[in-house]
């Protein structure tokens, strides 16, 4: 199972909105809603920010929203803040009882 | 408060073995599937393995299947990863993780433990 495809980097200025894409196949993203997004700051464990495609765990800012269409999922961060600068990873169920992550996207807040 | 604490990492020679442990607290351990995820230095996340609540269904990423074995002890709220025939490519921080209440997502993570495979 190949890793899901994410852009290596995205950037935006404070207050702006950025979107990170995650592309897979019909056998993973396309077929299942078992999909999540993670934020990871340097030297820290990942933090779940979206699960089941669109849901935010308790404590996650409403500035984080997500969607999925066909084989592509998207994470949108609005009102960009300096603290949002981090690596972001998508994750999907693959259908054979295994899971796959995207390669990760480094978000830079200018 | 949910807490996961990994241990057992270290330096091991290629072909060697290590056993990672993840001691949990603050939740009903026996009610959750559990996961191991790793991250090579400077690289992205890789899902490694998971185990169901009873411990009779175990799944692995292809690169570790046949070399790694996930297990759990529900009486002691603990998760394990036995790693055999280790390779340089297995060098990584290993995290244990508890899923969310939904169908996807690892909501709670340990601090991670470093495994270094080198001669």
**What does the overall shape of chain B look like?**
globular
Question: Poorly predicted ranges of chain A (pLDDT <50, ≥5 residues)?
Answer: none
Low-confidence stretches of chain B: none
Q: Give the fraction of residues assigned to helices of chain A.
A: under 10%
Query: Gyration radius of chain A, to the nearest Å?
Result: 13 Å
Judging from the principal axes of the Cα atoms, what is the shape of chain A? globular
SSE string of chain B, helices as H and strands as E? EEEEEEEEEEE
- Beta-strand portion of chain B reads over 45%
- Mean of all residue-level pLDDT scores of chain B: 97
SSE order of chain A: EEEEEEEEE
Largest interface: A-B, 31 and 24 residues
User: Roughly how many Å apart are the termini of chain A?
Assistant: 35 Å
Let me know the average pLDDT of chain A.
Answer: 93
- Sheet with the most strands, sense and barrel status of chain A: 6 strands, mixed
Percent helix range of chain B? under 10%
Radius of gyration of chain B: 13 Å
Would you report the number of β strands of chain A?
9
Please count the helical segments of chain A. Answer: 0
Global structural class of chain A: mainly beta
- Estimate the strand proportion of chain A: 35-45%
Any overview of this molecule?
- The complex is a heterodimer of chains A (110) and B (119).
- With 110 residues, chain A is mostly beta strands.
- In chain A, 0% of the residues lie in helices and 44% in strands.
- Chain A is built from no helices and nine strands.
- The N and C termini of chain A lie far apart (35 Å).
- The model of chain A has no long low-confidence stretch (mean pLDDT 93).
- By secondary structure, chain B is mostly beta strands.
- Helix content of chain B is 0%, strand content 51%.
- The interface between A and B is medium-sized, with 31 and 24 residues.
Layout of helices and strands, plus pairs?
The complex is a heterodimer of chains A (110) and B (119).
Chain A: E1 9-12, E2 18-23, E3 35-40, E4 47-50, E5 64-69, E6 72-77, E7 86-93, E8 99-101, E9 105-109
Parallel strand pairs in A: 1-9
Antiparallel strand pairs in A: 2-6, 3-4, 3-7, 5-6, 7-8, 7-9
Chain B: E1 3-7, E2 10-12, E3 18-25, E4 34-39, E5 45-51, E6 58-60, E7 68-73, E8 78-83, E9 92-99, E10 106-109, E11 113-117
Parallel strand pairs in B: 2-11
Antiparallel strand pairs in B: 1-3, 3-8, 4-5, 4-9, 5-6, 7-8, 9-10, 9-11
């Amino acid at each position: 199972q190949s890793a899901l495809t994410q852009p290596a980097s995205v950037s935006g200025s404070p207050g702006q909105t950025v979107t990170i894409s995650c592309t897979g196949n019909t056998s993973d993203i396309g077929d299942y809603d078992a999909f999540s997004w993670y934020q990871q700051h340097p030297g820290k464990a990942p933090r779940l920010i979206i699960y089941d495609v669109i849901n935010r765990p308790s404590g996650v800012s409403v500035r984080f929203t997500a969607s999925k269409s066909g084989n592509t999922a998207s994470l949108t961060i609005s009102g960009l803040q300096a603290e949002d600068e981090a690596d972001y990873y998508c994750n999907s169920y693959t259908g054979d009882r295994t899971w796959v992550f995207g390669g990760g996207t480094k978000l830079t807040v200018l | 408060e949910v807490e996961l604490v990994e241990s057992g990492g270290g330096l091991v020679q290629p072909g060697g073995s290590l056993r990672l442990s993840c001691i949990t607290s603050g939740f009903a351990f026996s009610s959750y599937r559990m996961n191991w995820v790793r991250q090579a230095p400077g690289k992205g996340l890789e899902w490694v393995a998971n185990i169901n609540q009873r411990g009779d269904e175990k799944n692995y990423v292809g690169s570790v299947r046949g070399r790694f074995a996930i297990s759990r002890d529900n009486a002691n709220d603990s998760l394990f990863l036995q790693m055999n025939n280790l390779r340089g490519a297995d060098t990584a921080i290993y995290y244990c993780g508890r899923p969310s209440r939904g169908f996807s997502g690892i909501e709670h993570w340990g601090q991670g433990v470093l495994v270094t495979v080198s001669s």
